[in-house]
Amino acid sequence: MISILVVEDEKKVSALIQQGLQEAAYLVETADTPSLAREKIQSQNFDLIILDVMLPQMSGMDFAKELRSHNFNGFILMLTALATTKDKIMGLDSGADDYLVKPFEFEELLARVRALIRRKHDDKAQLRNGDLQMDLISRNVTRNGTKIDLTTKEFTLLEFMMRNIDKVVDRNAIARQVWGTDFDPDSNVIDVYINHLRKKIDSPFPNKILKTVVGQGYVLNKID
Questions:
Q1: So what's the pLDDT on residue 122?
Q2: Which helix (H) or strand (E) holds 111?
Q3: What CATH number was assigned to the domain covering residues 125-220?
Q4: CATH number of this structure's domain 3-118
Q5: Contact between 120 and 136 (Cβ < 8 Å)
Q6: Which contiguous run of DSSP H or E holds residue 134?
Q7: By three-state DSSP, how is residue 71 classified?
């Protein structure tokens, strides 16, 4: 699934965008400051950042420049109340791929998101970790040439792990990205699905890559 970070300090706007994008089957995280956005970008990969221009700490344009200077190669869709041609040029020159003026209809935002995602190179529809491969369009998964049948949730879980190779992801991150909810500490559903996935992508093969990090979460090791 496509992973999106919404950087917006107006909580109502952020919540509406998050809800609408999740209903459109995107994985969505939010941040209300550039500092929180940095933390999330360092801990996971995003295909698209929806970035408000008017932010606390620094402007969205300066933050976009910072992201590009640190080699963020995903898409940036900038949101702003500044509507002049000069403002739009400044936004695009700062590193944004598209520019949407507030107020906007959510359907237009969704159309802009879809248009940017279509620009992704064809090879990004393929996730690969050594002999483990995922085709995000056909939804085929293979390891060492052997086809692996996954349920929808197992596929989404594996995609999230594949996008975060060698990074320890905790249960809260998994719950938000795969189930779209906060982690219930009394539930073992994540552990159950991790075990299901491990039996399918690990057990039949000599090189075990899906590991439990006690007290922290799970990691999908890189296959050399």
A1: 47
A2: helix 106-118
A3: 1.10.10.10
A4: 3.40.50.2300
A5: no
A6: strand 132-135
A7: coil
